[in-house]
Amino acid sequence: MLEVFSMAEHRSINAKPANGKPLGVANPYAINLDSFSKRLKMLYSHWNEYNGELWGASSILSVATPPVSEDLRYLKSSALNIWLVGYEFPETIMVFLKKQIHILCTQKSASLLEVVKKSARDAVGVEVVIHVKARNDDGTSLMEVVIHAVNAQSNSVHPVIGHISREAPEGKLLETWDAKLKTANLKLSDVTNGFSDLFAVKDDTELTNARKAAFLTSSVMKQFVVPKLEKVIDEETKVSHSSLMDDTEKVILEPARIKVKLKAENVDICYPPIFQSGGQFDLKPSASSNDENLYYDSTSVIICAIGARYNSYCSNVARTFLIDANAMQSRAYEVLLKAHEAAISTLKPGNNISAVYQAALTVVEKDAPELSANLTRSAGTGIGLEFRESGLSLNAKNDRILKPGMIFNVSLGFQNLQTETRNPKTQNYSLLLADTVIVGQNVPDVVTSKSSKVVKDVAYSFNEDDEEERPKLKAEDKGGDTILSKATLRSDNQEMSKEELRRQHQAELARQKNEETARRLAGGGSISADNHGTVKTIGDVIAYKNVNDLPPPRDLMIQVDQRNEAILLPIYGSMVPFHVAIVKSVSSQQDSNRTCYIRIIFNVPGTPFSPQDSNSVKFQGSIYLKEVSFRSKDSRHISEVVQQIKILRRQVTSRESERAERATLVMQERLQLASAKFKPIKLFDLWIRPPFGGRGRKLTGSLEAHTNGFRYSTSRQDERVDVMFSNIKHAFFQPAEREMITLLHFHLHNHIMVGNKKTKDVQFYIEVMDVVQTLGGGKRSAYDPDEIEEEQRERDRKNKINMEFQNFVNRVNDLWRQPHFKSLDLEFDQPLRELGFHGVPHKASAFIVPTSTCLVELIETPFVVITLGEIEIVNLERVGLGQKNFDMTIVFKDYKRDVIRIDSIPSTSLDGIKEWLDTTDLKYYESRLNLNWRPILKTITDDPEKFIEDGGWEFLNMEVSDSDSDNSEESDQGYEPSDVQSDSVSDDEDDESESLVESDDDEEEESEDESEEDKGKTWEELEREASYADGEKGADSDSEDERKRRKMNTFGKARVPEKRSLCGSLPKRAKLR
C-alpha cells in the first residue's frame, strides 16, 4: 500500500536537500563501497536462502524507482536504493540476475554508480552493466537489451521475475518497462515480503541513524512542543492546529533552534506534525492538522504526534495531554499507559510479534474491560527506511519472531471514547501514545524516552471550578464501578460541597485501608517482635593479655592507661585493671574537710541501661563489682583522673559506635567512573550535609555523575562520598526561593558513612547569598542605589545557581531514563511549595512541603523524608474548636516503626492538609487528644485478628464512635488492649501501657540524658518503686469494677478500638446519597 504525505520534499539525488539550499558545484555524493559490498552480499544471501518462502521462487529481481515527487512517500524501491547505495536514484531500473546486475538510468546517475562495479564483482561475483538513457530517449531499445540478457541467463522457458507489485508504475519510463514485462515471455511474482524481511533487522549504522532521528523527535516534543502548548494554554491565546504544525515542522528541519547538534541537510520530517483537539480525533499517521483553534477548556484532550527522519531513517513519538481531566479520563489514560508499557516490555528476542499486542490487550481486559472495544487494532508497526514496514505490524495475527536489531513504532490508543460533559467539544475524546523502540539483546530500548509520558507530566490543571467534581469521580472509580453514569457522577438536584465529597472519598478509603490491613496482617506482615529500645552490644573487652603487660605501680594511686584503654585501681594493696568500656559513670565530690571522693559505677548484668556484655553470658556464675569509691586529700589528682577517664571513655565509645555502625552497613557496588569519551556531569562549589568530621577548615567540593553513581569529593584525599544510583530511594531538587540555599537531596535505601557519621540522607547545597548582618545601626533607604544594585546582584546570583542546578538535574534525569536504569524508577522530585505548611517535626519549627511521592523538610536538620507509599494512616490530633494549633501523627504500614509526629501546625492549614491527604488517597482521622501510639501498635501486633474483628482503624473515627455511643453501652467502656486484661502482667508491660494519652512528664523522662541515669537510684526512686509495689498488692484485693474504673481513668478519653461483635464484620458506614 502506497503511503503519501504532502507538504514535504522527498530526498533523492535530483531533489534539493531538506534545508532548501542549492547544492554547490562540487559533487556532495559519495557511495560507501564497504557498506555497498556488505549489503549486496546480504541481498543475494537472503534471496538464495528464502527464495521459495519470501521471494516468490524468482530467479530475477526487478526494482524500478519512480520520478521525483513533491509528496513525501515511502516506497520499497526507494528504500532499496538508500539501503544499498545510500541515495535514491529516481527514474532508475535495476535488474538483479545471478551473474549480472543491469542498471538503466540517466547519465548523471550512471557517473555516480560507476564506482560500484569492482565492489560488486569482489563481493558476490556479479557484473554490473549500466545502460545510459539519453534525455529524449524512452529507453525501449535499452529495455530490449536487458530482457534479452534475462532470457539468455535463465534456465527456464518462462523465467520468474520478482517485482514490487504494490507500487504502480509512475512516469513514461516505468510505464514502458511495466508493459515490456507483461508482454515478454516472463512470469511475474511479488517479492515485497522478501524486501521487508531483508530490511527488518538493522545493522549498527542503521541503528545509529534511527537513534539520532529519535533523539531529534523526542527533543522537539520535550523542548518545543510541550513548552509551546503550556504557553498557549497559560496565556489563553488562540492558535490553530495548522499553525502549530507549521511551527513544529520548522523546528524539526532546523535542529539548531532547540540546540540539537544534527546537520539540517540530513534531517527531514516523516509526516507533517499532527495536532488534534476539540473532539475531532484521528489516530492514523495519515491524519492532518486542521485549521480549528487548539481547544483547552476543562476536560479537553490534546493529541500531538511528530516524526523526524535522519539520513532517511524514521522515528515517531506521540503524546496525549489532559487538561483538567476527570476521573474517567485519568483512569483511561493510566490503563493506556500501563498497556503501552506492557507492549514495549514484550519486545524481546524470541517472542512472537503477536505477543506484543496480546500483552497490551490483556492489561486492558483486566483493568478496564469496557475499553477493550475502543483499543486500536494493532500496537504499531516496524519502522526504518519506511515509516510503516510491511510484514511487521504489531497485531494479534502476526506470528513472526522478534530479532535483535528490529525497530518498532509502538503506537497504542483508545479511540472514540465518551465522557460525561455537556460541552460537545469534550464529549468525544481519544488517547494516543507512541514511542520508537529498538529490540535489544535482552531488554527493549525506548529511544524516545526523553519525552515523558507519565501522568504527572501530561496532566495539567488550570481550572479550579471543577474541583468539586473530581474527588467524587475518583471516589466512585475506586469503588470498582466500571461504567459511570450521570447519576453516579453527580446528583441531579443539588451540588455536593467539597467537604461532603471529601468525606465520601475518605469513607471509601477507610474501607479499602481496613481490607488492605486485614490482608497484610493475615499474611503475617508487620507483626514481628518490636524493636523499640534496641540496646547496643559490646564484645569481649580485654585490657591486658597477661600480668607482665601491666604498667609499674605508682604509690597505689589510681592510674589511667591511655594506651591499653584501662583504669588501674588500688584494691587491697594490688593494682587491679578495669577496661574503660565497662565503666558506666565516674564522678567526684569534696566535703567540708577538703576530702575528695571519687565514685566509679560499672556496667553489670541486671541493671537498667546496661549493654548486653557477652562476658556476662560466658561467666554467669561470677560475682560482679557494681561500684567503687576512693577517698583522697589530693583534689587535683582526683580531678585529673576523673577528666582522663571521661575523655578515654568518650573516645572508646565513639570508636566502638562507629565500628558497630560500619559493621551494619550494606555492601555497596563499586563506582564505575565515566570514560574519557563521556565526561561526567559535574556541579561545583557544593557543601555537604552531614559535614565531614575533623577540626580543619571546611572545604567545598564537586558532585559528579558517573556511570552508576555520584561522587562528591573535596581537595582533601579522605573527604570523598560515593552515592550509588541503586541505593537512591528518593532524589529531590529544591531551588532557592525563600530560602538561603539551593540543594540536591538524596534519601537512600541503605545507610552509608559520611566521614564518621552513618546516614540515610545526603545533601549537597550552595548558599545563594551571603548571610551577613549589617552592624551599622542605621536603616538604609529603600531607594538607595547601592542597596538596589546589591539586591539585583543577589537575584542574579540566585537565578544563576538555580539554573546550574536545573541543568544538572535535567541531564541526570536523561541519564536515568536509559533502559538499564529503568528498573530503579529514579527521577528528581521537586517540592510543591504551595502545599507546604509550618510545623515542628523535631525541636524547631520548620516549613514542611509535600512532593509527588514524599513529605519532606530539607532545610533544617535532622531532615524529614516520609515516603507516602509507606504510610498506613494519618491521625490529626488536638483538632477542635478554639484550638490554634493541631498535631499530625503518621502511622506506617510497618508497625515496628515508631510513628512520626509533627506538632504545632497552625489550624489555618487544616483544610489544605486534609485536601492534600484526600487527593493523594491517604486515609486520615481526627481526634481531640494526643494518643500514645506505642501500646496501640503493640496491641495490634500482639493480636492482629482481634484488631481486624474490632473494625480495624475505624476506632479512630470520631463520627462512627459518637453515633454508636448513643445505642451501645459497650462503646462507653472503650477498647481494652489485650496486654492489660490479665492480672498476671509483668511490671514492664504495666509501665509501658500506663496511659494511652501522652503527657509532658513522659516526654521529659524519655529525653533525660544518660548521665543523669548513671548516678544510681536516689531515695525518691526507691520510694516510687515501693509505692508501685504497694499499689500492685492493693490491686489484688480490689473488686473487678474498681479495677475497670481505675483502668478507664488511666486511659482517659483517648479513642482506641471498640469491642465489636465476633462475626468480624466492619462497622457500618452512613449511606452515600
User: How many domains, as an integer?
Assistant: 5
Q: In terms of structural class, how would the helical and strand content be classed? A: alpha+beta
CATH class of the largest domain: Alpha Beta
Q: Can you summarize the main beta sheet?
A: 8 strands, mixed
Arithmetic mean pLDDT: 80
Specify Rg, calculated over alpha carbons. Answer: 39 Å
Shape: elongated
CATH superfamily of the largest domain: Creatinase/methionine aminopeptidase superfamily
CATH topology descriptor of the largest domain:
Creatine Amidinohydrolase
Any guess at the CATH architecture of the largest domain? Alpha-Beta Complex
- Proportion of helical residues: 25-40%
Commentary on this structure:
The chain is an alpha+beta fold and 1073 residues long. Helix 1 crosses helix 4, helix 5 runs parallel beside helix 6 and helix 14 runs parallel beside helix 16. The protein starts with a strand and ends in a 22-residue tail after the last helix. The relative contact order is 0.05. It has 29 helices and 40 strands. Helix content is 33%, strand content 22%. It is elongated, with a radius of gyration of 39 Å. The protein folds into five domains: 33-199, Creatine Amidinohydrolase, Chain A, domain 1; 204-460, Alpha-Beta Complex (Creatine Amidinohydrolase), CATH 3.90.230.10; 555-607 and 622-651, FACT complex subunit Spt16p/Cdc68p (PH-domain like), CATH 2.30.29.210; 665-770 and 791-830, PH-domain like (Roll); 838-846 and 866-958, PH-domain like, CATH 2.30.29. The strands form ten sheets. The chain has an eight-stranded mixed β-sheet. A six-stranded mixed β-sheet has the order 6-5-4-2-7-8, sandwiched between helices. Strands 9-10-11-16 form a four-stranded mixed β-sheet. A hairpin with a 6-residue loop joins strand 27 and strand 28. Residues 1-26, 464-495, 527-538, 771-777, 962-1015, 1033-1039 and 1046-1073 have low confidence and may be disordered. Residues 558-712 form the FACT complex subunit SPT16 middle domain. Belongs to the peptidase M24 family. SPT16 subfamily. Its main location: nucleus. Residues 961-973, 985-1013 have a biased composition (Acidic residues). This is FACT complex subunit.
